[in-house]
Each structure stands twice: as C-alpha cells, then as structure tokens.
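FAQ: What does the model actually see?

It sees only this:
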Amino acid sequence: MLPINGFLLQHRLRIARNPCVSPDFCLDWPAFAAVLKAGGAGSKVWRKSGFETAAGAWQLVDHMATGDCAWRLNPRTGAAGAAALADGVALNGGALAFPATFENLLRLKNLIQEYDPASTIFPTAGAKLGQSTLGIGARFTTLHWPAVEWAMSALELGVTANQNSIPRELVYDVNAMLEGRLDTVPFPFIGTNVPEGHQGQSVEGMSHGCVLSKLKSGFHHRRIAWSFNADHQPVGGSFDRREDQLVAGSVLATYITFDLSPELAQTKVPGGVAAQRDYVRTQVDSALVAGVKTRVAACGLQLDEAQFNALLCYVWPALKKMSVRDGKYRLARERAFTTPAGRKYLRELSIDELPGLTTPETTALMLALCEIMGMPVNFIAPAFGFQKNLPYPDNAALRALIEKQWAVCRQFGASIGFHSGSGKSAENYQVMGRVTGGRLEIKTSGRYTYEMGVALAQSSDAADQALWRDWYRFTVELALQGAVSTDLAEQKMARGFITDALTRAGRPTDVFGSAAAARAAVEALPASPDHMFWFEYNFLFVLAAGGKAEKKALGDHSPRGYRQRARFYAISKEGRLNFAKGIARYIAFLAENTGLVSADRCAAARKLLDRYATMEDLLADISR
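And it is asked to produce this:
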C-alpha cells in the first residue's frame, strides 16, 4: 500500500469526500475487491462510462460510500483479459475487476489509444488545442469539472479542462508532503509563506480524477478533445534538485507552461557592453546567434547589438535549463506511452515575468531561440500589464499592444497566451479575439472560486449557508489582520482590498485610524463574494486547519486541513447546481466574446442552463 493511501485510511479521509489527494482512486483494494466478488453491494456501475479496447468492454465501478473505484472488464473471446491491468480479480459471469490505481491508469491510456488513437477519454494535444483554447483553472477543488464538461459539450468546444500551477497549487510529491519536505510559497498580500500544494490535491490525483470525471458523465462519447495544462512549471533556481519529480508527476499533462522566473531571478548579467558581448561570443553557439538574428529580422524588427547581447545574457542560462527540462518531459512520455497521440504535448513560454511590458523584439527573440533550439512553442505569454480580476482600462491601448505582439507571433505560428485572464471586460476579450483571429489562450482560475461563493451565498441549504458564513468570516479576519500589520506590503494590500469594497458600497473609506474603526466599517458591509477582500483571500480557506484565519493554519496538509477541505465536497445538490451554472455561463461568456463560439450557440447554451431544475438534469445532457 502506498504511504499516502495508508495515511488517508488511517485518518478516515476517503475519496468520496477528499478526492485527488492520492494518485490512486482506490485506497483499499482488498476490501473493495471483496465487495465486488460478493455482488457489489453499495457500488455503482457508471452507465455512461463504457469504452472498448482490444481486451474487451470496460466500465467504471464506484463504491459510493468510500469513493474507491475499479475498472470492470468484460473480456473479448480469446483476449488475455487478466493481463490487461495489474491486481485483477475474477467476478461472477466471467468479468474481471482491476483497482483504479495510477499505475493502471497509465497502462489503460496505452490500451485505449492503441485501440482508438482518436479517443478523447484522456487529455490530448490534438484538434485545435495548440492554437485556440480557454484555460479553466481550479484554485481549490475539483467540483467544477462537470460544469466544464457540460460547457464543452454544449458549445462543441475543446478547452484546457484541467489547469493548475505545479508545485504552487498542487502537491508535486505526496511522499514529500507526508515527510514534511514541501517548500513554501511567499504570499506578500498576507505577509507570510504558505506551503506548496495549498489546494491539497496531488498532481497525479488531479490527472486521474479529471479522466474519471469525463467517464462518469459520458463526455468521452462526444469525441471532443481536451487538454491538461501543467501550468507555471518552474525552471531552474531551487527547482533544479527536484525537477525529476516535477516531470514524473506531470506525465499525463498534454500542455506544459515553462516558467523561467526562478532561474532568471538568480541570473547575474555581466556588467558592461564589452563583457556582455564576450559572454555571448564564448557561451552561445555562433550559428544559433546568427539564426536568431535572421529570424527576428524576417519579422521586420531590428535588434540593437548591445540590447540583443544584454537580453541574451539574461535569458540564456534559463533557456539552457528549459531545453534540459523539455527533454525530460519528452523522454518521460516516450517511456510511459506507446502511441504518438499519447506522447504529444504542447508548450507555452511564460515571459510575463520579465521586467516591464514585453516588447515585440523580446517576444521575437524568445520565440526564435525556442524554435532554433528544437522546442517551438504553441503559446507565448507576454506581459500586457494585466491585473488579476480587473478589466484593462483602455481598449484602444490594449488593441495596440496586442497588434504589436501578434505581428510577431503569427510569423512563428504561435498563439498568444493571456495570463491573469479572469475578470476582464467583454470588450477586452473581444479585442483579444479579433486581433488574434481566435489564436489565443485565456487563462482563468480565480473566477471559479468566486462562482462557488456565489453558489453558496444563494443556496437555501442550511449547511451551505453555514459554510458560506464561515468562509466569508475567514476573509474578513485576514483582511482586518492585514490592515493593521507591521508588514507594510501586507498592510497596503489589505487596506486596498478593504477600500475597494467600501468604495463600491458607497461607504466612507477613511477607516484606518484604529483597528476598531476598520473592523466596524468592514463588519457593516453585507456579506458578499463581490468584495475584493473576499476574492483575494478566499482560496486559502480550503486547506486552513479548522477553518481558522491564522497564518500558521494555512495550507495545512494534516488531517485537520483535509477535514476542512471535505466541507466543500459535502455541499448540497442545490449548491452544486448553482456552482455548475455559474461556471458554464462564464465559459460561454468567454467563448462568445473571444469569438471561439458563435453568439447564437452561446445564447442557446445559456437558455438551456436556465431550464435545469436539478443537477441530475444538467449531468444528463453532457453526453447528449
């Protein structure tokens, strides 16, 4: 038994209320196998989950009380069904059952894609996903997946349906978690560092659960390709020593975002024009330098020699490490998977961490370097000056910025990735879509946590309301603590969040003369997910031990943190329906305004959403 499975069983943290923590979706196979052999009492065969391989016909079976899952195989005559996966048991009638372990999931991917290369059960890099997509992130739970599947089905649009920053948001190594070896991530706006993986789930667990969700809903029958983005994969710096674990955990990702900022942060550029020129001459292959200059010139751009050398000195160490990491991603897929479809992955280069707004010359140089180094990128994310959850204030200026970048990107066949994409105006998205002709990616994440707040606040269920009150109170307390903090950065941001909420409510903002005055002003506001302080602090609640608004309680991977996380998986059907509708509407909003889906189809989807009275109604329509 994996140590993480033993930990979860010991503390009664079962998959049904705490999914995606373990890489496995079966914690106690001996117990579940005994249930299945005895007739399967308390188990559910997901009717829409069926698919075939050369070994026979498969379905997913779920023990509803625990969440443990198994693969049920009715083998073809003459097929070696027992050898299809590991640890199988024979059932009555000739069927076989295998535990839903991560090892079996990887083997099953090969079986499926060898039999049906166009299968969409697993994430892929196919269809138009390398040109146009919406990145649907999750900052706290997996409860959004059915809504994403519904939206893809209704809109007939494949998207990046699983997107998370690793290791910031997801646990990159469950053994490191159990052994207390996770690093921490600085969050200046709360004045502390929070352990990595602050969502609680593991990267393998998310990879596994996202596939099972598509099978349960029958989404795979729609044959719509979707992708999984291992977002902000950190390159260099302190991550050198654990990059092999980052690569291994992300083996099912079909889309890698390379984040060079850790290496850039420690790169020391030689001082002076002459020293920089000498560095380029001695450290960078002359043919590569010449090729980059030629490629950039073909875009109609002229690079000043001194500026070219300075920028190359800055990025070259990071790009060399990116090349090594890219080779490891490729090799991991070649070792694990047997088909071209199973091995293919997309690349995104995140350069919005470079100082200032990204110039076209910088974009051209980075794209040319990646192309010549044998790792052409599908998406590149320049810095446009976006602020999270805020519209860009000037559409004409935004158009001008994007047009300059797009003139470069289209020369390389690359699309533009818009990071911090949540919360922009319809007009902002229209500009992005029109300038790029839909060759874009909009990365969104925080919006979906917001939709959970809206869903709970509007729910008539008493337990949902209690969760909402506790969640809101948590953000109030963090904001008020921050407002009087001696950490000036924390204080400034907390006061800004509070001031924004008071301004929008038409209340006085001169409230920071004393802690009591600030508290009175904030507590006089009606509880709302629209307050900026709620939006900024909300994601930290999911793994806060005991739900406490204390810095030491945040990102708690002990049983106390996971029991807090379980509260979200216990929300009512009404809460889940509200949540799903909110997410689906927002995806339709993005799809329409970026031009990825017609206005008529999006309007029809919204009309259909309005008709659903139960979550079961919505789920039933996913597979059509």
